[in-house]
Amino acid sequence: MTPARPSVVIVGAGPRGTGLVERLAANAPELYPDRPLDLHLVDPYPPGGGRIWRADQSLLLWMNSTAEDVTMFTDESVEMAGPVRPGPTFAEWSGADGQTFPGRREQGAYLSWVYEQSVAALPPRIAVHEHRRRAVRVTGPRDGRQEVWLEGRPAPLAADLVVLTLGHLESELPPEQRELSDFAARHGLTHLPPAFTADADLSALRPGEPVLVRGFGLAFIDLMVLLTEGRGGTYATGADGRLVYRPSGREPVLHVGSRRGVPYHSKIGYEPAGERPPVPRFFGPEQVDALLARPGGPDFRRDVWPLIDKELGFAHYHRLFTAHRERTRMNWPDFEEKYAAADPGSAALQALVGTAVPDPADRFDPAALDHPLAGVRYPDGEALQEGLRGYIEADLARRHDPAYSPDLAVFLALLSVYGQLIRIGDRGPWWHGFFSYLASGPPGPRLRQLLALSRAGVVRFLGADLTVTADERRGLFRAESATVPREPVEARALVEARLPEPTVAHTRDALLRSLHTDGAAATPAGLLAVAPADGRILDRSGRPHPRRFALGPGTDARAAGAFARPRTNAPAFRQNDATARALLTFLRDHATPSALALTPKEPRVADH
């Protein structure tokens, strides 16, 4: 019998799968030179952009990063064993103004180009096979070849190694959402559960009718765009210089609230200048080593968060003292020494900050940041509208004013923290939400549009600690918030403006469900447990699978994004490199001589 060629199956050909291919191409000359390999990429969507960045979506939807802040290529900042293969950022590739927020279709074109470049960079004997199908199951022994079963294909793909780079996935509805959907069906209402807004059917949301929206993050921004400009509305500049919205008459009225009751903070709108914060300082490799050495592992709130709090505060005050020293009352070396000695959240630390930083607006207070409406009460809904517009205007002003550059220092420290956290694993849902709220908010122009929509009455704010109940007697959804007590809002439509929770136990993805059923471990938050060193999937006893790997948001080693800002030692790049090297090393060490003698690669094969 003809020996089988070595084979790797990558399930998911979006940004993460593309980044892995790039790292395979970069590392193969060292670890797997002049050897045959079949590389299978499985994804129902085109490689490169995948589902999220595909071409067939609204031109109105933007990226959430500026053109100069997105790259798919490593640089000298990335701490990895493999070689740096530099390449253009999105701005350099497209020629776009680096400060603009390109459309998602344009980003998809960039990702497709990166994919083609990465495939072309593979050594001659590595053949690429594209399968525009869904993978539904992986079988095979721990010590033998795996079989990857595809939807609509009778025979499985044989693989020495399997890597899941699945990205974001749909999930089954949790009990509360099922109850709301059942209530809507009984009363002829509309309930849109958590989903990707670009994929949701919004046609049932009728012009002029109130719609309750639960969630004030990026999914809401997409919803806002599609139901306003997407229905023919336009913007113009008013006589006072403010943005004005001109309705088409086809818009519903969006009543939006959330736990915090405010939108995510605006993207920072100025360039970094001066000295960057010297992080990591209080939450770096040494501290993570100590946390991991604790019996039973660290508890996030008790053990990890205090170190993060101190790290973020250090970055904030370093920038304040070095760039805005006129707003401080102590020299930096003295403050730094006392800050390092004080416990996070302690009375000593509060006293130090109170003495050295006279203006409360210059102090770092994560609790106040996380709960901006805590204790705030408005007498009625109209007062809330005015109050929230003032809050958003103040946020826009601050995030575009370099006088408040400690905010940028905290953002850079957040990136550093996320890079350390991938070694710890599951952090629970709060941290990711807090990070996104501070560091991954909407572009400033989107918040200016939100203000215009609020002034036009198309968007109405509901406030914080939002609760939604199903009124069986009236057959309506009712929303209430702590910010305006005793003033509920009723509607026939409810939209959950957030992504589905990426839990392996409740995912709609058949492949992940089968892996979990067959013994793959899930964290307490429901994420797929993987080895932080190389992404190998762990079983329930903590053993890494020798032939199965996973990267991306459904794992407990998820990074802040699949692509990254240049020169930030991005965790995704480090993970991709480590996994690529683990794959190539395994293939090199396990391939039989007869298999390695097989023919050069064939042309790329597409299986639709």
From TrEMBL:
Mind telling me what this protein is named?
Adenylate cyclase
Please indicate which superkingdom the organism of origin belongs to: Bacteria
Pfam families, alphabetized: NAD_binding_9
InterPro entries reported in the protein's UniProt record: FAD/NAD-bd_sf, HpyO/CreE_NAD-binding, L-asp_N-monooxygenase_NS-form
| Residues of the FAD-dependent urate hydroxylase HpyO/Asp monooxygenase CreE-like FAD/NAD(P)-binding domain | 9-168
